[in-house]
Design a protein that fits this description.
By secondary structure, this protein is an all-alpha fold. It has one domain. The chain is 92% helix and 0% strand.
Amino acid sequence: MRDGDAVCTDIVGEQLVLENVALMEANLLSHGIVFVRGT
């Protein structure tokens, strides 16, 4: 393993995690809006 490769993998991994968190938050917000409208 080269240091450069490890750094690249870390950056890509962090981007994927951030994207997943953003998607989860968007899903929670959309569900929350649906629940509020339904009541």
